[in-house]
Amino acid sequence: MKNWEDIVKDKLEGYESPLPEGSLAEFRARRDAAAAPGKRFPIVWLAVPAVAAGLAALLFLRQPGTPDSGIMDMRQPVVAVAGTEPESELEAETAPSGPVSILAPVQTRRPVAQAVTPAKQQTAVDIQQEQNSEPAKEETMTPEEQARQNEYGSNTVMTTSSPYIPEVAASQSFNIKVGPAAGIVAGGGLLAAVLTPLLTSSPLKETGDVYNAGQKGQSSSPVGDPVGSLPSGLGQDDPNNHNTGTNEQTEQIPSNNTQYIHGISETRHSIPLKVGLMTRLPLSSRLNVSTGLEYSRYASEFNPGTSVEKKQIAHYVGIPVRLDWTLASNRLLEVYVGAGIGGDYCVGATMNHSKVEDKDGLSFSLLGAGGVQLNFNKHLGLYVEPQLSWAIPSENRVLYTYRSEHPLTFAVAAGFRFNI
Amino acid sequence: MYKELDEQELARRCCGKDRLAEDELYRRYAARVFTLCRRYCKDSDEAKDLMQDALIQALEKIEKFRYMGNGSLYGWISRIAINKALNHINRQKWRKVSLGPQQDENIPEPTEEEMLGIPEEKLLGWIAKLPDMRRAVFNLYCIDGYSHREIGRMLGISEKGSAGVLAKARKQLKEEIKDYLKEQDK
Questions:
Q1: Which residues share a beta bridge with B78?
Q2: Considering the domain A44-68+173-205+267-419 in this protein, what is its CATH number?
Q3: How many domains does chain B have?
Q4: Pick from A30, A31, A282: which is nearest to B93 by CB?
Q5: What is the percentage of chain A residues whose pLDDT exceeds 90?
Q6: Contacts of A24 in chain B (CB under 8 A)
Q7: Do B52 and A16 touch (CB under 8 A)?
Q8: CB-CB: which of A7, A8, A12 is closest to B35?
Q9: What is each CA distance from B180 to A16, A132, A395, in whole angstroms?
Q10: Would you say the pTM of this structure is higher than 0.90?
Q11: Given a cut of 80, is residue A354 above it in pLDDT?
């Protein structure tokens, strides 16, 4: 005796359903359309991302030395150190000071006055001595220096938010500029892990830009005392630091601080490393939302000259959200373009293994990409996509990283993508 | 003339892009493939599209067909249709999950006599009403003869998951059959 399922099978296996009317004609039309050559996968679409990927690889490997503004030296008037003790004769003598050469200061988030330590007082004395010993320096200003002074004015106020961005670099930092290379976005991180050690760092560049921005008789310094305006993080190694201001991590400045400050003119950035896990949510047959979690590592080195080189490493976690449009696809390959926005947050930053407190907050970037995806199966694919990202200017970015110099970043991303 | 061609010769002519042979292949197998597609699809329109896609793909790949005896051409075409149907099901990202009331666990099995009296169209209608996954598992296991391991691999579920889905599909179908037989008795 057959069970009911076997009977269902017998009944349906041989059953011929009545065909809908006109189905043969429709079949013929579809057969002819399928046989037409236009239905083939448009190979030409592959050419666009292939050329873009080749160009990107060329740029990536070429690595031309980009103008690295680094830290620029500015001659600025120095006022008495804010917060100095009133009984100091030093203050009275220092106030109408002439131009001295100091490190181009930058605006920290809280450029408040700081208490003077003996080291600072000593520094101020040194500065004054230097001024006194070179009274004729201003008169012998070169034409180039004069031109720079005219260009930037004497009351230069730093408006950048990173401790390492000089004014000139800051004013140019948001110009659209395609950098020579960029980060590697790797879903699996394999490609990034291989390429990053090989292709790190643009060569050290010294700007050597020294110009006189001060005038005799000026009584204000843009950001307070020169010591306090040292880059945050510098001097963190000094256990004898007694500053009480917000920027407490100040290095023990040697007596000839001019030389020390002049030395900090070298910066170099490693190519950012980006590793992420991406997934794709289909909205329709062509439209997809790509999103995921992306980790980025930005490493920079600052050479203070007489002191130990400082290495800053910043770690970011971001969530890119992109809308992708599939231009062409077949079973194996898919060609797409997409645009979107990404947010990232600095989860940690160190300067010579010491934690940096004042780190980047939440900030956003605009993203654009075009790419090719090779589908291994319906859930997993390998993608290669040239992509552009533009860091939206934000006050939340306080660290000076590769992105500070290259807001518009061109990258070739490769990795694995999970299709839901 | 084409009506008398055997499968092997028909396939050979289709391989040579003989339009009349292709039409004959359609006439010969379309209705059965359509039934197969109706088993896997929710509605007739979807099944018709699937059937035509499967036959067009079969014609495009006909040079890969190897004659293994009588009935092998239909077997080959039906595998293409099943694969297309499963792809179609797998593409539906949001599968419907039945949240209906708990069904009676002890539904009596319909007898052979009762089953023989049920028209094929009724059976197709009940199968079409099953949720996608249940429909696919029931068809693959009970009608097309795949094992739970193969079904699991095809649908991206575990063997046990396949067996569980099949049990639910059986139960739902038995409910339908029971209701139908009750109506017939009245």
A1: none
A2: 2.40.160
A3: 2
A4: A282
A5: 6
A6: 23, 26-27, 30
A7: no
A8: A12
A9: 23, 110, 71
A10: no
A11: yes
A379 or B120, higher pLDDT: B120
d(C-alpha B5, C-alpha B10), whole Å: 6
Mean pLDDT of A330-348: 88
Domain boundary pick from B62, B91, B120: B91
Question: How distant is the Cα of B37 from the closest Cα of chain A, in angstroms?
Answer: 10
DSSP assignment string, A267-286: EEEPPPEEEEEEEEEESSSS
Contact at 8 Å (CB) between A242 and A277?
no
Task: Tell me the shortest Cα–Cα distance from A7 to chain B, in angstroms.
Answer: 7
| Residue of A1, A10, A12, A419 to mutate when probing chain B, most B C-beta within 10 A | A12
Is residue A98 classed as helix, strand or coil in its secondary structure?
coil
Residue B103 placed within a domain: no
Q: Between A363 and B93, where is the model more confident?
A: A363
Q: Which residue has the tokens 């938010």?
A: A161
For the domain that residue B38 is a member of, what is the CATH number?
1.10.1740.10
pLDDT of residue A282: 83
Q: Which of A49-53, A71-75, B101-105 has the highest mean pLDDT?
A: A49-53
The amino acid present at A282, given as its one-letter code, is: P
Measured distance CA(A9)–CA(A251) in Å, rounded: 85
Average pLDDT over every residue of A178-188: 39
Whichever domain contains B134, its CATH number is 1.10.10.10
Q: How far is B143 from chain A (nearest CA, A)?
A: 5
B88 to chain A, closest Cα gap in Å: 12
- By C-alpha distance, the chain A residue nearest B31 is A16
Helices (H), A337-394: none
Q: A9 vs B44: CB contact, 8 Å cut-off?
A: no
Assess whether pLDDT exceeds 70 at residue A396: yes
**Predicted ipTM?**
0.87
For chain B, give the mean pLDDT. Answer: 87
Confidence of residue A157 (pLDDT cuts 50, 70, 90): very low
Give A412: exposed, middle or buried? Use CB within 10 Å, 0-12, 13-18, 19+: buried
CB-CB: which of B30, B90, B112 is closest to A2? B112
